[in-house]
Design a protein that fits this description.
With 409 residues, the protein is of the alpha/beta class. The protein folds into 2 domains: 84 residues, Urease, subunit C, domain 1; 298 residues, TIM Barrel (Alpha-Beta Barrel). Helix 8 packs across helix 9. Pathway: Amino-sugar metabolism; N-acetylneuraminate degradation.
């Protein structure tokens, strides 16, 4: 039969000599890409009867889905929580720089701030696809200000707020706009939080529990009302106690609705979470673990003073503290570093480490049919990595958007 080029005249690229992360296993097979999507080669062979237009030898590399960072406060001198007349250049800089660390999509995160900051910054951020200009923006993560004073961490106490009689209207008045918001972190023990959680989830916004002194029953109630995420597990919450494990207890709770899964963020930078705590969480609930950087403006910069919203931060090596204190204030680790540390600390499989930064955040946001896997017809956002999980090249929509200088195809 003659070739059928009527399906698409766009070029087909075949990535060969590689191991693909697919169905939770690294498999020796080729990856086929056309028009920004991953192709089913059987349909190509039998329906269209055409070969690849271009073959690329990956030299034994691992091909994995692009990383998705759902909690990143900034980096490379950019602080997303600073109100400027034009926040777009800063976001563009970060989105470009994180390509070298394997991040193909992210959620710019704003920490607790005055309403004036939200009103100025949020209208300037919009969801966008990734490409040569940088990683895609999936929507904003608003961490606070509806959080606990006792577990405020690096968040400024004078900016914290509670839900009054208006509840959801209080939240709207504080943020001013929810059009680009994808995740909201709040403390579930706050009065009227349940109705706020229900309203947010009804609008497709993910609710995360964090910076909280909630007990387990309060956390379970929040999940029953729609919350699906825990912000940086173990950090800024009550420590585990055997009679009431608090939010941590959600990892093994039997009160989670059958149709619902709880995910939890982990800052795997070797600073925020002891390796033993990483292992405990991973073994208790491996399918819910989502690696996040919680990166601040100092990521990628030399030690010194930086900002985190309204606070001044002092960075010393991999440690960053609120100036003059020993209060940790976000991380300066990159996502690829977090993936490698998680692999080493837990002795998990390579597949597990990679999925914690790709599949799981995609599942959390409900976009696993588009991103976070290498399944057929998903977005061709993927990475080439060596055996030690160092990024060799980053692809978005099938285009190479970053490559290590020493690596060629």
């Amino acid at each position: 039969m003659p070739s059928n080029k009527s399906v698409s005249d766009a070029p087909v690229v075949q990535f060969t000599n590689c191991r693909i992360l697919k169905n939770h296993k690294l498999q020796r097979e080729d990856l086929w890409v056309r028009e920004g999507k991953i192709l089913n080669p059987e349909k190509l062979f039998f329906d269209e009867k055409i070969p690849a237009d271009l073959q690329l030898n990956c030299k034994g590399s691992i091909i994995a889905p692009g990383f998705i960072d759902v909690q990143i406060n900034g980096g490379f001198g950019v602080d997303f929580s600073l109100a400027t007349d034009d926040v777009r250049p800063g976001i563009s800089l970060v989105s470009q720089k994180i390509l070298s660390h394997g991040v193909t999509s992210f959620c710019p995160t704003l920490v607790t701030s005055p309403p004036s900051v939200y009103h100025k910054v949020l209208p300037q951020i919009s969801v966008r696809n990734g490409g040569f200009h940088g990683a895609g923006i999936l929507g904003v993560h608003l961490e606070g200000p509806f959080i606990s004073k006792e577990k405020k961490g690096a968040h400024p106490e004078q900016c914290l707020r509670t839900f009054e009689e208006g509840a959801f209207q209080d939240l709207l008045a504080t943020y001013g706009c929810l059009d680009c918001v994808r995740i909201v972190t709040l403390a579930p023990e706050m009065k009227r939080s349940s109705e706020v959680i229900q309203e947010l989830t009804s609008r497709g916004i993910c609710v995360s529990l964090g910076h909280s002194v909630a007990n387990l029953s309060q956390a379970e109630e929040a999940v029953q009302h729609g919350a699906t995420f825990i912000t940086h597990l173990f950090n800024a919450m009550l420590p585990f106690h055997h009679r009431d494990p608090g939010i941590v207890g959600l990892l093994t709770s039997d009160q989670i609705p059958i149709c619902q899964q709880v995910f939890y963020g982990m800052i795997s930078d070797g600073i925020h979470t002891n390796p033993a705590a990483l292992r405990i969480a991973h073994r208790a609930h491996p399918k819910g673990l989502v690696l996040v950087t919680d990166a601040i403006a100092g990521m990628g910069l030399a030690p010194g003073k930086h900002t985190l919203g309204q606070q001044v931060v002092e960075m010393d090596g991999l440690n960053s503290y609120i100036a003059g204190t020993k209060t940790l204030s976000g991380s300066v680790a990159t996502m690829d570093t977090c993936v490698r540390h998680f692999l080493e600390a837990t002795d998990c499989t390579v597949e597990t480490a990679l999925e914690a930064a790709s599949l799981h955040p995609a599942q959390l946001l409900g976009i696993e049919h588009q991103k976070g896997t290498l399944d057929y017809d998903t977005d061709a956002d993927f990475l080439l990595l060596d055996d030690r999980l160092h990024i060799q090249a980053t692809y978005i929509a099938g285009d190479q958007v970053w490559r290590r200088n020493t690596f060629t195809l």
